[in-house]
Amino acid sequence: xxxxxxxxxxxxxxxxxAFSKEEIFxxxxxxxxxxxxxxxxxxxxxRFKGLVCSGGQAFYxxxxxxxxxxxxxxxxxxxxLKEWNFLAPIYVNETISxxxxxxxxKNAKKNDEVIIxxxxxxxxxxxxxxxxxxxxxxxxxxx
Length: 143
Hints:
The chain is an alpha+beta fold. The chain has four helices and five strands, in the order βααααββββ. The chain has a five-stranded antiparallel β-sheet with strand order 1-3-4-5-2. The radius of gyration is 17 Å and the shape is elongated. The model has no long low-confidence stretch (mean pLDDT 96).
């Protein structure tokens, strides 16, 4: 991240990822142990007709691997997550691209801090929006 002041409307690419069967199973074992995330027969017989990621898997991949390395040193505290929308399933081996945008910036109580509303979006290889969420974070101002 460059040392410039935060700007509303700034977009950041967080990368792309295709989740393997093994990655889906491993994440589901710890975080979402439902049959249709852990068992191929159950997945094929589910409403999705195949293996899909757990709802939070894409965010919890890109957040520590891409967002935190860019912005983590400025984070004071998380303040909330809202409107986490699962719009379409993420299938095994489907490439997902993640992006985020600064939607709003407010002054915090301390002059050296700001409250930033981040909008995250996750799109499949066809460009279809499959997931989105808003994350509010208290950041140190960039000097």
